[in-house]
Model the fold of this input.
Amino acid sequence: MSVGDAFIARVDAVETRLAAAAAAEPSPGALSAADPESGERWDRGQAWAHVAEFIPYWIMQAGPVLRGQPSGEPVPFGRTKSDPERIGTIERDRREPVAVLWSGAREGIATLRGFLAGMAAGQWGIRGLHPTRGAITVEELVERFLVGHLEEHADQLEEMTAASV
Done:
């Protein structure tokens, strides 16, 4: 199985989990566990707002990394958790109905599936330069900021639903 196919299989699985979390009733007043890096705790709306916004953001950030630089040096990309646009989008959208945010996330997941399917074998090793994580490969970018990140938020959302009780 290719790297892309393995990621697509994980995307398929996490999409099913997210669909169930979107349909489940939230536990009253549920908050996520504290983020290990920031200590931040989110409500369900914040988690869904983030899921809906981060997929297109990171796919867009991967584009310049994949194109590279003539020098062969890693292309700078990405943001940190303190990025004002990230924080603002989550705050703005957190009160949107889950159905609306899930619809946006599904569109992002479909785009992600196409992005992964279109990757050539040699592209997974191209390196980009993240502001805090340093030089990482496209494979690591997809793991950390897209597929693995979706799985983390599926865990988080499952923990916040009455269905997981």
